[in-house]
Amino acid sequence: MNLQQLQYILAIEEHRHFARAADACCVTQPTLSAMVMKLEAELEIQIFDRSKQPLLVTTDGEKVIAQARKILAEASLLSNLKQNLVTMPQGELKVGIITTLAPYLLHRILPAFFKAYPKVRLNIQELTTENILKGLERNQLDCGILATPLSNTEEYYTERLFQERLLVFTRHSNLVGNKAYLLPQELDPKKLWLLEEGHCLRSQVLQLCELRKQTDPNAQLIYESGSIESLMNLVDANEGITIVPELATLGKQKELASKFFPFISPEPAREISIISYRKAWKEHLRTLFASVIKEQILPLLLPTEQSVLPAN
């Protein structure tokens, strides 16, 4: 048994196809198949049911794969130990970040991070919360940056980075009653435009407007979009309102900036955290990355009394 065999069975479990798994591992299919069969013979366990298409993992095979993930994770941690001990941090950190945060965060932190840690390589992917959690569990990501708190994530290590207020955006001040500070229940759900399904910010906005939604369940008009910028552009060109996080409001032109309206204190907010499946997993690099985020972002946010909304 060797680590390469364990990598092969994880690739097969992910792709559910021997040829695609072989391509992902940069080996020929006969080589991969032979190595997996050798492992099955050594363990006296059939890991995959090859009679099905796509192939299935057997009940015993699921236990083998779960243990293989743990072994490979520990092996990777050991290989990175030297990098964590050297004076100049180095290595690779694979990061998943939610799509409603990446456009407003990355350009504010990456220059400072690369200047401070030039030997660290960041591999960043924009993903939904669900796919970040899957990537962490499968060791495809080292850490994730997303909205918290989340339910059923007790096994994850979580470090809070910052909280950002949620604000209303509209070009029609009459839709918010020409008030300086708003109550969530004052918003007209019929005018509310939301992100599409799968975004945690959509869930938070629905929680924020839940009271009105329950009293008028058939009156809500939802215009779904995949990005905050698309929503703001559409709202700015038409009649309606949307709710956006604070970082998305920074750096806007003066004309656009006047169309953001705050909620009354305590203001609804979303909490942004960095999480990993294991606390010790690339802890040194993750801690450095988290520190730079805090240093660059916290001074930009308005300190107010806030009420954090659950992320799901």
Describe the structure.
With 312 residues, the chain is an alpha/beta fold. The chain has 2 domains: 3-79, Arc Repressor Mutant, subunit A, CATH 1.10.10.10; 89-312, D-Maltodextrin-Binding Protein, domain 2 (3-Layer(aba) Sandwich). Helix content is 42%, strand content 20%. It has 12 helices and 12 strands. Strands 3, 4, 5, 6, 9, 10, 11 and 12 form an 8-stranded mixed sheet that branches. Strand 11 (267-276), helix 12 and strand 12 (306-308) form a beta-alpha-beta unit. Helix 1 (3-15) crosses helix 3 and helix 1 (3-15) packs across helix 4. The longest helix has 21 residues, at 59-79. The two termini are 41 Å apart. Mean pLDDT is 83; it is low at 211-216.
Topology, please?
Layout: H1 3-15, H2 18-25, H3 29-43, E1 48-49, E2 56-57, H4 59-79, H5 81-85, E3 91-98, H6 102-116, E4 120-127, H7 129-137, E5 143-148, E6 157-169, E7 194-195, H8 200-208, H9 210-215, E8 224-225, H10 228-237, E9 242-245, H11 254-257, E10 260-262, E11 267-276, H12 283-297, E12 306-308
Parallel strand pairs: 3-4, 3-5, 7-8, 11-12
Antiparallel strand pairs: 1-2, 5-11, 6-9, 6-10, 6-11
Helix pairs in contact: 1-2, 1-3, 1-4, 2-3, 6-12
